[in-house]
């Protein structure tokens, strides 16, 4: 699924209107219906609903929604904020459509906003994608009053004041929505952690925008949905054998962190790899052989740390390296040898990233390799330097992938996968139960397994991150997010793959 800019969204609206021969008021009515459809499922008609409308089409949506909710017996009070002498045409059409008994309150001073109790519902229709400067003055005051009211706020299309595809200037007020209901496609702003407290829980409702326009629109930003990964999921063949599903090598674990190797290995085996060899420091041998009997185990000559590569490194189809390895000098040397010798794809995680990030010499060896990095935000900064905000982080992600021709799965709530072409794919599965030690090690195992099975590096990243998050979403149903462990996530990988291959009702 593509992510469009605010400007492209306006073009999509205009294109749909032309192509379907409908009026812009008709499209607004569709948007308002889609919004109220969601609202009715969430809130009871007994709720008091206060709808705050700005001067543009977002305000028009608010007025239409106020009318539709009134028809469905909600107790609705519309408010028109500020000077609307230059309001949009569709705003004015919907103002006229308000029934007699639904008279709006004109807010010309912040004091005209009533004291709202915790039980009140606010619909925020002040500004949408037409926002063109930070919100200050009366509108800013109204937003601050709503934010501090304790009422449950639902924003139409986007929280008012939030820029949808660039950094919002500090002086601008932004609605802190509990829910955001957006039209047709998600907005980039929703996917960035810095906006969590403004966007709240977000949903996208369809309004029938032209699929042709969306398909042809130029964008480097995507959201990965289930149907996207199902398109490239490879079925298991009846007459196949383990040799066809790849032989992976995991270089993981260190003294006190052998669990990282166990988790990566278990996740790798649960993601379809044909054969798995794990090389661990000597101290890890009995642990691996006991905890993961399906994996073959090699030992390093070093008791505690990774210090050497297996002799026949070229027999492996893919190498996953990093979880639990530490940053000893001997380990750094081994990583240098790995980058210098193998032409096979490598998945680098955790301390493998920290080691590469700290060495310009190793960075110089990254070019023209088949590499996937899976950093969390701190590890990413060790690769690219300090970042200013989420937009800056995304820019660095694109530049790093383009410069080195590599893939980076930048982990987070919506893990962002950067590609050498400068594209970014945001993931849509997963939950805060994943915020616990070891889940990243499991992801390394999953992605390594998929590369071993000849998925392209892009497919392996997108499918791997998606299925890892899906496993966590399925685990949520049985263990919840507080108690979830990395092992729970791995234990739910089978159901997650089943869910993709044989969609459950
Ligand atoms: N197009 C369609 O058919 C459909 C559109 N839809 C809906 O329309 C929304 C987009 O509507 P929109 O383009 O009218 O812009 P909107 O966000 O209401 O704001 C523009 C107004 O705000 C003003 N203004 C801007 N910034 C300001 C500031 N900081 N402080 C103060 N004023 C500011 C600006 O005034 P000006 O810049 O001229 O002073 C102008 O009056 C979209 O999000 C969706 O909800 C759906 O119904 C589907 C069909
Ligand atoms: N709040 C969250 N919502 C969804 N996914 C999350 C959240 N927090 C962490 N994750 C996911 O959990 C994993 C954590 O990886 P990482 O930080 O490397 O952990 P570790 O090194 O302990 O294994 C990543 O896949 C990340 O995307
Ligand atoms: K809004």
In brief:
It contains 19 helices and 17 strands. With 505 residues, it is an alpha/beta fold.
Structural summary, described in words:
This protein is elongated. It folds into 2 domains: 6-218, YjeF N-terminal domain (Rossmann fold), CATH 3.40.50; 228-499, UDP-N-acetylmuramoyl-L-alanine:D-glutamate ligase (3-Layer(aba) Sandwich). The strands form 2 sheets. A 10-stranded mixed beta sheet has the order 8-17-16-15-14-13-12-9-10-11, sandwiched between helices. Strands 3-2-1-4-5-6-7 form a 7-stranded parallel beta sheet, with helices on both faces. By secondary structure, it is α/β, with parallel strands linked by helices. The mean pLDDT is 96. The protein is built from 19 helices and 17 strands. Helix 3 packs parallel to helix 4 and helix 12 runs parallel beside helix 14.
Task: Itemize the secondary structure elements and their pairings.
Layout: H1 6-20, H2 24-42, E1 48-53, H3 57-71, E2 75-81, H4 89-96, E3 105-107, E4 121-125, H5 137-147, E5 152-156, E6 179-183, H6 196-199, E7 201-205, H7 211-216, E8 221-224, H8 226-232, E9 247-251, H9 258-269, E10 275-280, H10 285-291, E11 296-299, E12 318-321, H11 329-341, E13 346-349, H12 350-357, H13 360-363, E14 371-374, H14 377-384, H15 390-404, E15 407-410, E16 416-418, E17 424-427, H16 439-452, H17 457-479, H18 486-491, H19 493-501
Parallel strand pairs: 1-2, 1-4, 2-3, 4-5, 5-6, 6-7, 8-17, 9-10, 9-12, 10-11, 12-13, 13-14, 14-15
Antiparallel strand pairs: 15-16, 16-17
The structure holds ligand NPW, adenosine-5'-diphosphate and potassium ion (K).
InterPro entries: CARKD, Nnr, Ribokinase-like, YjeF_N_dom, YjeF_N_dom_sf
Subunit structure: Homotetramer.
Protein name: Bifunctional NAD(P)H-hydrate repair enzyme
